[in-house]
Batch of 4 targets.
Target 1
Amino acid sequence: MGQSGDGGGPQVRRQGRWRTGMQSRQRILDAARARFTELGYDRTTVRAVAADAGVEPAMVHYFFGSKQELLAATMRLPAGPKEAIGALVEAGLDDLGAGLVRHFLHLWDSSGFESFLTLIRSGPVRDDSTTVLRDFLAREVTGQLAGAIGGPDGELRASLITGQIFGLAAARYLLGLEPLASADHETVVAWLGPLIQQLVTGPAPAR
């Protein structure tokens, strides 16, 4: 009996520490979300968020790193598409246009995308949101596409593709532009995929 009790003690304590840590993390997120909403990015400090959450500032940095990363966490950015785009690129560039459109439609229709739309919606009026969104796209999408496409205009092509893809997000999900908003995935892929493919492998326009 004593051995069973001794063996269970550390496990209970470990579970308790894990649960307490997750509770602290959630309190930090709630406090940060409230601060960012009320005061904006510049006037929100990690120290103030920590005080609101009842933790030390070091714990905020432990869980989230920088203040910008904390903002991204409050927006619940979707899982990065970097790996998925990498897999599409590895399969070859010939069908990349359709693959990209299909991937992002599935991603956007998954749970949690509403918070990402909030970030897109706030981007034009909040410098901090614009920075987070731009860095996210540069890291996860544009940079990877530019490397795969290559050539002297690879970066421009990648930027144009990113603009088309996230223009689709704004028109379909943010503005609810019909009939695009209610079109099924494969219809959108059939129309937009070849346009994206032109940017991937098509000849550069005459100048």
Note: The longest helix spans residues 2-43.
Target 2
Amino acid sequence: MEEKMLVKKTKLGDKDALVQLIMNQKNDYYRLAYVYLKNNEDALDAMEDMILILYENIYTLKKNSAFYSWSKTILINCCKRILREQKRTVPLEAVKELSYEGDFEEKNNEMLLEKYLSELDERHQEVIKLRYLLDLEYKTIAEILKVPLGTIRSRIYYGISRLQEKFGGDDLEQD
């Protein structure tokens, strides 16, 4: 109930109400941006862009109860824009050697997963990251991406199938 009241106040120009709405979900917003951008500063930049867009366009929100899915859609679009602008080219001199103390097998599996995931089509990567890295429900993913629920299920199934093939087995658990 508080969320709807804050959205109404925000639509009337109350900046503090918008800040309160954002702060209520700040961790979710950050995790979502970080999954896309894999960089703290870029994730924070995307959140900053999202807040500005929200403030300037809050009057276009039709259903107050849809604020969070609407704002997450905006955040995803901000992340995609940042990725397009950067094209992620890093000079070799800028890469520092990092030491890793831990389970090398686990780290190797993470690197393989990231490699295989990056080989998937962007649509399949996106739904798998939203589902398994952010633990979002299928319905929520469909709302955020503005795609039918069946399409989300299909993309996840196809993406997981391709990952299983690359890992060399079908013993991976599916949802």
Note: The mean pLDDT is 83.
Target 3
Amino acid sequence: MAEALLAALGALAANKLRAALTALGIFIGVAAVIVTVAVGAGARQQVLAQIQSLGANLLVVWGANVRLGGVSMGAGQRPNLSWDDAQEIPRQIAAVQVAAGTSRQQQQVVAGNQNWSTTVVATDPDYFVAHDWTTQEGRFFTNEEAMSGRKLVLLGATVVENLFGDEDPVGREIRIRSTPFEVIGVLGRKGQNPMGQDQDDVVIMPFWTARRSVMGAPRAFARAVGTISVKVHEGESMSDVEEELRQFFRQRHRVAANEPDTVSIRNLSEIAATRDASARTLSLLLAAVAAVSLLVGGIGVMNIMLVSVTERTREIGLRLAVGARRRDILRQFLLEAVLLALLGGAVGVIVGIGLAHTLAGVAGWPVLIQWDAVALAVTVSALTGLFFGYYPARRAARLDPITALRHE
């Protein structure tokens, strides 16, 4: 085996350029496999992080599409969700852990001589539980503070950066519509949600404080909310809870059997999971293209090995004449084919890893090097050399020594 290996290396070294060009197809295939798997794994990891940032087991209730005089006015145009609905949901549906009514409004926030336009969220402490929020600094407001209308706020990281820079905002004062608020905490970072919105560009305050001091509302809609975030207990069926919520609102809103639902319920995890499935499909498509590159590289290996057998016919005849067995010839040419493929695979691994990190830095794409995929790519390249090199090696081993020695 050692002699066969040395002979194979010597044969490859004698035709360096041809060996390099032959290995190019394997190199491209292996590099493509590593890059596509790394980008695909990174994309799936990003989607998983987005799902976790939304909050586990989360359903969001919106007002359904409203029709006035036969004209569709769009979802949520008429306030039909209330703060009281959110308080009642956990009492009526055992599988629900918490439910938090929420109203949102774009407002200009001022701190000192800095100002920033952001989303003000009016809610209660259950909202932090529903969306798995944490605090980077400070604390959340309590139920007692929320019900008493205390002028307290928590700021998202994006708001802090634009209003306070590197300074600690906890204990400082901001103004919204000329009303002063005390900053009691900075929310932990969540990044973008699956819809591409910056979840850190937010100011959260107690619901009743917002109603009295910032958002306001006609007396008839003083308790109205835009959405209700519903967190389901771990292990409970999301689809069952979704159906129970529909029935809850049909009864609460006195909807007749032949009338449509007055609410729309969205499972945000399903939206993110759909994105993950799309990323997985794209990764599989790109991996298939990479596999075709490996196939083309394998055909190139077979072609060059057939040429090599033809060129070295007299050498093969001489080896057979002086006592070489057919399996020795087979082993020698198989080793050449495998070494050729492994050469391309090794270079492909190095270039693939480098290209994946380059893409991450330049294009901002998430990448995650999968070492099992690297090992698989190298193994496949070796098997490609073995598979496509077998026919030329077998052809060389079956040559007749007398005919081979006479070959010109």
Note: The chain has 13 helices and 14 strands.
Target 4
Amino acid sequence: MPEITRDEVRHLADLARIELDDAELDHLAPQLSVILESIASIAEVAAADIPPTSHAIPLTNVFREDVVRPSLTAEQALSGAPASEQQRFSVPRILGDEQ
């Protein structure tokens, strides 16, 4: 696989709107080449008869069913609150009107 050049790194940086100086270009070009070589070696190992997967083993949902059950009324939930308003907890304002 051909190595990525400084000019290619500079072009990618320009596309991403990242400013890189010459020292950074010299440092990043070989690193990006190594990354590309690693990806190429993985692509060689991938067999056509093996479907792509996101996990090595199948995963199952461990969450319980969403079932409606009896719970507190609004009055019960707000009974211990220092302040409430329109069946909601009332808290001090932390932001001004400049939102």
Note: The first helix runs from residue 6 to 15.
